[in-house]
Amino acid sequence: MNVNPKVLKRFIIYMAILTFVMFTVWGFVRSFMDRPAGDYETEVCDIRLKDKKYEEALEAANKALLKTPNHRGAMMCKALVFISEKKIFKSRQNFK
To answer: Would you state the pLDDT for residue 24?
Structure first.
């Protein structure tokens, strides 16, 4: 079999690049597919908390807690909302 070395070298380089690209895409897609229920809402809560939109943050945390009742991030975000609003007593009542 007569194989041109330049063609073989180019083929190997292309396959190496494509392998790297496909593993990168696969890892990126899997990072979104393996997320537990309520993670998106918890991120929304965090963003709203940073923007000082406390009611919207509390709504997002409650949505996350409806999906996963013991979601640590959602409970933490909810507590941070109460602490930011200076409602520490209410925060303690919710998490006993």
So the answer is: 94
Looking at the structure of the chain, the number of domains it has is: 2
pTM of the entire predicted model? 0.59
Residue 41 · residue 60 · CB < 8 Å: yes
One-letter amino acid for residue 45 of the chain: C
Q: Which domain holds residue 5?
A: 1-34
Q: Fill in the amino acid letter for 56.
A: E
Residue 46 has pLDDT above 70, yes or no: yes
- Torsion angle of C-alpha atoms 59, 47, 88, 55, degrees rounded to 10: -30
